[in-house]
Amino acid sequence: MSSIAQKKGFGATIWDFMTTVDHKKIAILYLMSGGFFFLVGGIEAMLIRIQLVKAGNDFLSAGTFNEVITMHGTTMIFLASMPILLAFMNAVMPLQIGARDVAFPFLNSLGFWLFFFGGIFLNLSWFMGGAPDAGWTNYASLALASEGHGIDFYTLGLTISGFGTLIAGINFLVTIINMRAPGMTYMRMPLFTWTTFVASALILLAFPPLTVGLFFMVFDRLFGASFFAVEMGGNTIIWEHLFWIFGHPEVYILILPAFGIFSEIFAIFSRKRLFGYTALVFATILIGFYGFMVWAHHMFTVGLGPTANAVFALATMIIAVPTGIKIFNWLLTIWGGNISFSVPMIYAVAFIPTFVAGGVTGVMQAIAPLDYQLHDSYFIVAHFHYVIVGGVVLAILAGTHLYWPKMFGTMLSEKLGKWTFWFFFLGFHLTFFIQHFLGLMGMPRRVYTFGADQGWDLFNAISSSGAILMATGVIILLVNVVMTIVKNERIGNDPWGDGRTLEWAIPSPPPFYNFAQTPLVRGLDTYWIEKMDGNKKGMIFAEPLGDIHMPNGSIIPFVISLGMFIASFGALYFMDGKPWALAVLIGGLTLMFASMLVRSLKDDLGFHITKAELLEDAKGGNTDGH
Amino acid sequence: MAHDTHVHVRSQAEFEYVKKKRAEEMRGHLATFAIMIFLTLIAFTMVAAGFSVYLIVPIILLLAGIQVVLQLYYFMHMSGKGHGMIAFFMFSGMFVAFITVLTFVTIIWW
Ligand code: HEM
Ligand SMILES: [Cu+2]
């Protein structure tokens, strides 16, 4: 591609990314910032494991430890895992359905910048008087009692980034419903698109309860309301409900796209059509539904009463059924396939037993009487790391290798990739397997230290040593990324050689309009069908070559988000009676609404790429921007 | 893409068909409107007649539910073609909201 030939200045590149509305560039922004927060969260994890490496350690004080675990959980869930998955959704889903962009490119950019500023706001707490310390679940009794501004950074930061996620979810829903290429019926959509669809629906339905809860919390803490303050007639349990009505669907928002990535990988590297495609689709939808009926399994020990506990226990066990269906479908996809053990496939194969282990402990916890023993112990910590790291993070690492070529046009090293895998995978099991037993031996979660006479020394030391292996794996991945960028060996459309879906039929990275001509879809695994028919072009076209209408870039999403960011500082210091706080609040909101007004009043009709330019591109001309 | 705009002239048969459709739709509108007025009257009468609150409240809620459905299907055209996805999402949302309210009522506030 000649895109590299056309060198832009550094400033121009930054400006380009700040104003872009192209889903592929927004994907890169999500990947970079999500990756950054992943490293931050990883450093916090290492601090936790250093503190717990031996009995009575004083590496971190009790208060700092609480801040570190809170920020670790919050960062990993909201600022690392979700954004990186959104990066893949942005990069791949529009290509898979044969679209030129998402339905609302402007909103796509707005969603990213809101997430970004929310994340920065949350992390600034470290430098501005202390981070939140009530756990990532931020239970109201703890949160309302917490001194300083940590919790306010949490509530305001998550409100901002939550808006961003909600916007992204709605955008993907509309895109998938309305922008599929001709012939791309719902039952021909690749599984990653399907899981994006269901995860977006979950975002749509699950984020509002969180927003409501956060709003109540903001008002309780900053403006003297008492929704959760028991002494004022409030109810602290309502926060728990609101949080988990969001929280359980949230774990499925994370795991479904991960399932999608693995489904793609199993099909590509087994060189076989997915076994039981229909069953996989319906299992995904079913999981989405059940996801909303089980939240109280996080609250068995609150004292909901035996009836409520029984109902939610049963519902929770039922949700394991569609998950099991998926596992069998993947196994049968591999069965008899012509398997190639490239890095993504290694991750996918390793994912199956790991995730099954996490699912089994999940079902154990779903047994309410047993959960009275397990709750708030290290067993829970082991469970959710088996599903989140063994499911979501393995999918993120696999997806990074799988989609790197499509996003950047270069190939990550297979050799270093395998090293990363082994360090990370072995380190992971070393760290977390033993935590099941720590839990059974009675070690509570979220304790900053333990006594030498409690018999937990050895297992904690083993757990911490595993963490070092995982960190080594991540560092090797970083080396891999840098080396790949420096080498810059360009690759073609279908670098894995066995791509099945539309994204592999176009150049890597694709031209900014994706498809010069909208493709016509003849079945599931669109590109594979054309390959098998010997179609050298990789697709059939649904329209003649003609002008393409494209949206203009815009700085407004950035400014709107910046306005909210500034306003949040005003809201945060308002309680302290700082005279400038109100001015900052109003100033930020003014900036936000003024930029919205500009957007509403000024027509932006976009521009056209002419047929002549497209023909020029087809001969190998400029494919990267304008 | 397509720059040439097609000007479509309706044939007589098409015209008749559309007219008949519209008339049918109009009849639907009027009928539902009458039903809705009637339901509202029932609600007011019940209150005016001074029945027990435990009877009035559930019945009014039920009538309100019926009104919402009528409104959506006859006035907001959800019965029309291509509204499947919209209906699906609306009912999913209502379902989630319903479960939430149900749990709150039964296990927090009861
Ligand atoms: C087979 C499916 C699953 C079942 C039956 C299940 C069940 C449970 C139960 C009952 C708890 C509460 C335990 C307690 O606190 O006492 C729990 C906690 C948790 N689960 Fe799962 N789970 C499943 C899958 C998942 C998945 C796929 C994820 C994420 C990708 C996940 C993430 C979590 C998290 C983060 C927590 C702990 C939350 C906290 O207290 O901080 N689970 N799980
Ligand atoms: Cu859960």
UniProtKB/TrEMBL annotation, chain A:
Q: Broadest EC class?
A: translocase
Q: Could you give a single Gene Ontology term from the biological process aspect? A: respiratory electron transport chain
Q: What reactions does this protein catalyze?
A: 4 Fe(II)-[cytochrome c] + O2 + 8 H(+)(in) = 4 Fe(III)-[cytochrome c] + 2 H2O + 4 H(+)(out)
Keywords assigned: Cell membrane, Copper, Electron transport, Heme, Iron, Membrane, Metal-binding, Respiratory chain, Translocase, Transmembrane, Transmembrane helix, Transport
Which Pfam families does the UniProt entry name for this protein?
A: COX1 (PF00115)
Gene Ontology cellular component? plasma membrane
Q: What is its EC number?
A: 7.1.1.9
The membrane spanning regions, by residue number, are 27-48, 68-89, 110-131, 151-179, 191-219, 251-269, 274-296, 308-332, 344-368, 380-404, 416-438, 458-482, 555-574, 580-598
Where does it localize? Cell membrane
Q: Which GO terms describe its molecular function?
A: cytochrome-c oxidase activity; heme binding; metal ion binding
| Domain Cytochrome oxidase subunit I profile residue range list | 9-522
Q: Which family does it belong to?
A: Belongs to the heme-copper respiratory oxidase family.
Name of protein? Cytochrome c oxidase subunit 1
Q: Which organism is it from?
A: Planococcus donghaensis MPA1U2
Its taxonomic path starts at: Bacteria, Bacillati, Bacillota, Bacilli, Bacillales
From TrEMBL, chain B:
Q: What is this protein called?
A: Cytochrome caa3 oxidase (Subunit IV)
Q: What does the organism's lineage look like at the top? A: Bacteria, Bacillati, Bacillota, Bacilli, Bacillales
Cellular compartment(s): Cell membrane
> What residue intervals traverse the membrane?
30-49, 55-75, 87-109
Topology class, membrane: Multi-pass membrane protein
Pfam families for this protein: COX4_pro (PF03626)
Q: Which organism is it from?
A: Planococcus donghaensis MPA1U2
GO cellular component term of the entry, any? plasma membrane
Keyword set, alphabetical order: Cell membrane, Membrane, Transmembrane, Transmembrane helix
The UniProt entry lists the main location of this chain as membrane
